[in-house]
Amino acid sequence: MNPGLFRLAVVGSRSAYGRLAGIAGGVAVGVCLVLLLWGGANGLSARDDRGAWLRETGRPAVAVPAVSGDPSASGPATPVPMTAGTVLMRTNPVEIFRDQLINRRDFAALSPSTVKIPGIPAPPEPGHYYASPALQRLIESTPRDQLGDRFGQFAGTIDDSALPGPDSLVVITGATEAELRLSGRASLVSDFTTNPYGGSAAAYNTVLLIGAAAVFFPVLLLISIVTGLGAAQRRERFATLRLIGASPQTVSSIAAVETAVPSLIGAVFGVVLAAALRPAAAQIPVNGTRVFEADLATGPVAASAVVAIVVLASALVAGYRTSRAGIGPLGVTRAVHEKTPTMWRAVPLMAGLAAMITAVVIIRVLEVHLPWLESPLLIGGFVLILAGIVVIGPWLTQLVSRTGLRRARSAAAVIAASRIHKTPVATFRSVSGLVIAVFVVSVFAGASSVIQTTEAPAARPGLLQPTSLHATVGTGHTPARVLEAAHRANELPGIRSATIGYGPAALHERDAGPEIFLRAADAPALGFENIPESETVAVDASLLHFWTTQPLALSPAPARALEGLVPVVMVLGTDGTPEAMDRARTAMNSSGVTAIPATSPMDNKLQSSTRLIQGLAVLAYLGMFLAVAIAGLSLAVATASAVLDRKRVLGLMRLMGMPVSVLRRIITREAAVPLLTVLFLSVGLGFLVAWLMVTGIDDSYRVAWPTPDYFIALGLSLLLALAAVTATFGLIRGNTAMAATRFE
Amino acid sequence: MSTNDTAAPILSARGLHHSFGQTEALRGIDLDVHAGEVLAVMGPSGSGKSTLLHCLAGVLVPDGGSVTYRPAGRSAVETSALGEPERARLRLSDFGFVFQFGQLLPELTAADNVSIPLLLAGTRRPEALRRSRDLLERLGLDGLGAKLPGELSGGQAQRVAVARALVTSPAVLFADEPTGSLDSLASENVLTLMLELVREAGTTVVMITHDARTAAYADREVIVRDGAIGAGYRVSA
């Protein structure tokens, strides 16, 4: 291509420089977000990989022989001996400090042991512990009786390679073999799993891909909108080139190069920007912990691929659009009329819904397990629905604008409705990002709502009190030792009561009975009101289960019922302050008599969400933030583009006396009508898709009504739209001045 | 400078100066435009005639000098001393504009394009459309009210622009090369219809043109050269 010709096409005026800067800036933001998003996905994946070993459950530490002739019966359990190639591990389901979950693993090992526990040089000695740096900081800044006493003596920190993130709270403690075996929860481990998702890997990947598609889509829209910036101005310039002899192919090539150059500059700047923002991005806590900065790096290959794809795609689109615009020597020779949208535009949306519904029917109604079909249907359906909203939008917009035009009364309404009616695709494109953002927000709000269905239990008689903590007692501890531990705990500040429950055997043993016995005098401390006239009372053992929501009644027990029973549970009542709760936990966990870490009915709120749903929530936060931010940017760019492309005719209207306020109303209406038309569809579809997605993945979850946060997010999206449109008001005044009406 | 001696000027410019950066576009122009006259402003490209029209119409505020507008039945107003909102209101209510090309909103029908000034002035839409269609009919465009600008010929589009400029019955019509983009036949057709309507309504016209044949339709012409009025003579009584 002739460099002089190219220079003539690309440069030469302040507005051309502004347009090129706009394209470069928009592409920079888009590429930066793509790389940060990619890095985020890498980071989450790396985080899961680092923490995979925590999913290790080991194999049983006892052997239970079958009884010959009776497949349902089993003989007495015998311990499987530990060897140098195995360690005994106790997985503690809940170790909580304040409202934070601590991953705790207790190990007993022979010396020497060949088992490599991730992140530490050797298994800790009994009474010693290794902690993650974040947990050790927490321990050091907290009174020992609230946290540190739970773990023993500090032996060292766990290496980052075994920690999901820099904020991860992980502790590896040393214990004796007897202690772990008595708890009834020990297992033998010879090596640690590297599969971070276990059986739910496919479902997790499905959610991850759907989330990625949802967030990438607005980014692609942004890049598409930005590269179309000032298309009308460019057409004038290209017409001049045609007049002086450039062929249509030359003009298309110039358009492609003209877009490719600022796109390349913007894309490279985007890569630099992403690298610069990586430390800041690493500070964002996701699911309670940040991600290691190194995990957010995408590497030069990925960055180069993103740059190449974005530049190539934007150049091809620009060249194609120009070749289709029919630019002749005297300008655009044929009016570029948009095709009237028809109801065929509903097909992709319907196809997407059909795909997702089919997946749900296969999984839930037919109950056929076809993983090779389910995920593609769910992901493909989701992508089709995303695209379908963008495709159906112009048709719905045109239907609404037709009615609007008939009812229009003011000049602004007539001008805006006419433009929307004649160019529904172009006008809808400017708000499509926001419409998609609202859809994404609704999907994530709907999908995340399953987490929020678990409410904190209320204090009710007949149930364990929310301010109490309990722990089952291990096998073989004498009543005197357990009582002594309870009395010691009872003397701590904030602890109001210490109650021991009894049974025929430890609750994890086969001989454990269905009831727990306690002294009637201790019952009020547990919150019971109607106490039978008896020295000893009994209550169903389900009292200890977090899913018990119906109050239980006490029944009288024989006076000598406690004789021959063993302590099976210790319950501490507290004043409900966080300090007292953690003091009680620490007292019980360090007492040496409890089989599991102390739990409170309140803890359920912290752990009821599964790993999968937590992953979904992570994507929800990322998706909501990115989609809304990008969409606001897209709308601002598209609105600015709409002003720039019509600056001459709008300038003439101003010259004839049309107030700037009317021009503002026109621009606002042109954004508001398509936005509001499809907004409600987006919201409805978002929740429908969330339900299909959640049901398709696991039917034990239910989509609930969105929380106020969702409506706040929705309101913020609309405010952002208003802000984006308002931001262009200055552009209206500046670009519709008298100078804009001249055509040289 | 040439003036009509019998009628009071509806527009008076005194000592107009205006510059764009280092370029002096107007250098102390004095000009009176009388009510009901058709004034042609001629001159070579870059002579300052469009700048003069924009100053007279209150689009531009001159760097020096003044423009006074004397509407019938109302007190005179110095437009060059008004703020932009007041000048915009004045342009909307008292002035009409026709340009060379590209002045119609491409997505609006011809009737809607014509009705916009009425809607801006607060007229109800059915009434505005009725008046627009009436005017289009008088300009020989009956039946074309529902067409888009892109579906009209150059001459038809220019007559729609004339209709839009006259629909509010302005006191002064400013026309900047109104037939500059038309062939001679279409040009004659547009000018004849436009002048027929303005003479019937008594509208004053300030028309910029390069074309002597177009200027021949005017009552008077002035020539602007290098930002100053060179010569003027009455072409018809």
If you had to describe this structure to a student in words, what would you say it looks like?
- Chain A: Residues 214-319, 623-732 form the ABC3 transporter permease C-terminal domain.
- Chain A: Its main location: membrane.
- Chain A: InterPro entries: ABC3_permease_C.
- Chain A: Keywords: Cell membrane, Membrane, Transmembrane, Transmembrane helix.
- Chain A: The chain crosses the membrane at residues 20-41, 207-232, 253-277, 297-320, 346-366, 378-397, 431-451, 618-644, 671-694, 710-732.
- The complex is a heterodimer of chains A (744) and B (237).
- With 744 residues, chain A is α+β, with helices and mostly antiparallel strands.
- Chain A folds into 4 domains: 1-51 and 202-333, no CATH class; 56-195, no CATH class; 349-454 and 609-744, no CATH class; 468-606, no CATH class.
- Helices cover 53% and strands 12% of the residues of chain A.
- Chain A contains 20 helices and 21 strands.
- In chain A, the strands form 7 sheets. In chain A, strands 1-13-6-9-12-10-11 form a 7-stranded mixed sheet. A 3-stranded antiparallel sheet of chain A has the order 16-21-17, with helices on one face.
- In chain A, strand 7 and strand 8 form a beta hairpin.
- In chain A, helix 12 (424-448) runs antiparallel to helix 19.
- The longest helix of chain A has 38 residues, at 660-697.
- The mean pLDDT of chain A is 80.
- Chain B is of the alpha/beta class.
- Chain B has a domain at 9-103 and 170-234: P-loop containing nucleotide triphosphate hydrolases (Rossmann fold, 3-Layer(aba) Sandwich).
- Chain B is 33% helix and 27% strand.
- Chain B is built from 7 helices and 10 strands.
- Chain B has helices spanning 49-56, 84-94, 110-120, 125-138, 154-166, 184-201, 212-215; strands at 9-20, 23-34, 38-42, 64-69, 77-78, 95-98, 172-176, 204-208, 220-225, 228-234.
- In chain B, the strands form 2 sheets. A 6-stranded mixed sheet of chain B has the order 6-7-8-3-9-10, with helices on both faces. Chain B has a 4-stranded antiparallel sheet with strand order 2-1-4-5, covered by helices on one side.
- In chain B, strand 1 (9-20) and strand 2 (23-34) form a beta hairpin.
- The relative contact order of chain B is 0.20.
- Mean pLDDT of chain B is 86; it is low at 1-5 and 233-237.
- The interface between A and B is medium-sized, with 27 and 33 residues.
